[in-house]
Design brief:
The protein has 306 residues and is mainly alpha-helical. The protein has one domain: Tetratricopeptide repeat domain (Serine Threonine Protein Phosphatase 5, Tetratricopeptide repeat). The chain is 52% helix and 0% strand. It contains 14 helices and no strands. α8 runs antiparallel to α9, α9 packs antiparallel against α10 and α12 runs parallel beside α14.
Length: 306
């Protein structure tokens, strides 16, 4: 899946979701910083994120944990449906508890938003601005405004809105996920991993959140831990081409070449563009340190040279 976080591994380092882990002696050189946002989340040019959260620390360990533009929150207050008119007049208490969409719906919403035009993002921002002006404590409106800013690459300006949105909707996984992607763009990798972990906590089957956390970990050179997150994403969706590709690159960074080849061959079957990573990391050409795959679409991370 072409996610908002697509970037070269070396350049991306899994976008902003890296945690504070130093690379081990057996790991390759840290991936380069990404210059674009991940495809899965918010910005139009984002590198692929690493999954942040509890991930297996070794490729063989069983995993319990595992990011296109940030997803749109489509849920309504738990106790009542939310309409545009009602949202503008609702009280803070009414917006505190939100029933976020399930993982499949959230993923579909992210894909839909990723295809929007700049003009549509600006309209999205204008509408959100009006809603926030009508009710400054509307968590949904704050989230929409934050996402619009992220899509327009106003990452620093978007961060406060994500944080304020969480004040009113503390258990909304979409806010955590989107802020994580935004932080990847700001190269705040450790903080990004925490946000992806928050998204996973409230929506355990969100494959994009696991992927995002894995990308962030790659940026911090935590390749072995990243493998766990990519594995979880693959368990949730066996056709997740980016997860196969990034796990393969992660394996190659600590000399698990057989596993790397297997994953990269699978990634190439699912997405022909991944053949570049296959040749680069386990092909007949001289092997180079793990890099983030070069960005293919505005939003995903790329690979870094060792």
């Amino acid at each position: 899946m072409n996610s908002y976080f697509r970037m070269p591994l070396a350049a991306l380092g899994l976008l902003a979701f890296l945690s504070n882990c130093a690379s081990t002696a057996s790991e390759k050189e840290k991936p380069a910083t990404m210059s674009q946002p991940m495809e899965a989340p918010v910005a139009a040019e984002v590198t692929r994120p690493d999954t942040a959260g509890a991930a297996a620390t070794s490729p063989d360990a069983s995993l319990s944990n595992g990011v296109a533009p940030p997803p749109t929150v489509t849920g309504a207050p738990v106790d009542a449906p939310i309409t545009e008119a009602a949202r503008l007049t609702t009280t803070p208490a009414a917006t505190a508890e939100v029933a976020a969409p399930n993982a499949a719906a959230a993923s579909a919403e992210r894909a839909k938003e990723k295809k929007m035009s700049v003009a549509e993002y600006r309209t999205m921002l204008e509408n959100a601005e009006a809603a926030v002006k009508a009710n400054p404590k509307d968590g949904m409106a704050l989230l929409q405004r934050a996402k619009a800013k992220s899509y327009l690459k106003q990452y620093k300006e978007a961060l406060p809105d994500y944080t304020n949105a969480l004040r009113y909707q503390r258990t909304n996984p979409d806010i955590y996920y989107n802020r994580g992607v935004n932080r990847l763009m700001l190269k705040q990798y450790k903080a990004a991993t925490s946000d992806f972990a928050g998204a996973i906590k409230y929506r355990p089957d969100d494959k994009d959140a696991f992927f995002g956390r894995g990308v962030a970990k790659m940026q911090m050179y935590q390749y072995k831990s990243a493998v766990g997150d990519f594995t979880k994403a693959i368990q949730l969706d066996s056709t997740y081409a980016d997860a196969w590709e990034y796990r393969g690159i992660s394996y190659s960074s600590f000399e698990k070449l057989a596993e790397a080849r297997r994953d990269l061959e699978m990634a190439a079957k699912l997405n022909p563009d991944a053949a570049k990573s296959l040749r680069k990391y386990v092909g007949n050409e001289p092997k180079e340190p793990a890099k983030k795959p070069a960005s293919r679409t505005a939003p995903r991370p790329a690979a870094t040279k060792r």
